[in-house]
Design brief:
mainly alpha; about 60% helix
Length: about 70
């Protein structure tokens, strides 16, 4: 496992939140991304950073146990 794989998992989780669509809406309408989406993205980034610093990175790094709850 390496940090790139952890970052890819973080990116995958953000895509499930439809972050790109929220950011596009913000760009087009000037309405901000909802705060709960922003907070989840921050939590995902923090989890990814913590996992990437572990040595070794757990083989099951993609398990929901390591990531913030989305629903």
């Amino acid at each position: 496992m390496d940090a790139v794989q952890v970052e890819n998992e973080a990116r995958r989780r953000k895509s499930l939140l439809r972050l790109d669509e929220w950011e596009l809406r913000e760009f087009v309408t000037d309405r901000p991304v909802p705060e709960h989406i922003v907070q989840l993205c921050v939590q995902i980034d923090l989890a990814a950073a913590a996992l990437a610093r572990l040595s070794p990175i757990p083989a099951d790094y993609a398990d929901d146990l390591y990531w913030p709850r989305v629903w």
